[in-house]
Amino acid sequence: MGNQELIHDIVSNVAEECRLDKLNLPDNIYVSHRSCEGTRYTFFLNYAREAHEILLPVEGTDAITGEFISGTIKLNGLDVLVVKRSV
Predict the structure, then answer these.
(1) pTM for the whole structure
(2) How far apart are CA 80 and CA 69, in angstroms?
(3) pLDDT score of 73
(4) Contact call for residues 48 and 86 (beta carbons, < 8 A)
(5) Strands 39-46, 60-62: pairing kind
(6) Considering only CA atoms, which of 57, 56, 62, 66 is closest in space to residue 83?
(7) DSSP assignment, residue 47?
(8) What is the pLDDT of residue 19?
(9) b/e per residue, 29-65, with b = 16+ CB within 10 A?
(10) Residues 6+ apart with CB under 8 A from 77
(11) pLDDT in tens, 15-68
């Protein structure tokens, strides 16, 4: 078993034990969350040069355009999406 497989197995086991949601995202898509004063921001970063379609695990307002966003979206290459929602 290589390092990547071992890391994947460890992270999967920890996530399952902690009952964390698993996101099925393409490679090169990074997700991060930040919260501040009752608002949660979810950042989706596409590190690939090609676009990817992703199913958003959250719905809310696109923090850049102000439009409501949910479901499957296209994230262009080297692009960022910030979803803002109340918690």
Answers:
(1) 0.77
(2) 14
(3) 96
(4) no
(5) unpaired
(6) 62
(7) -
(8) 73
(9) beeeeeeeeeeeebebebeeeeebebebeeebbebee
(10) 46, 48, 49, 50, 51
(11) 778 776 667 888 899 999 999 999 999 999 999 999 999 999 899 999 999 999
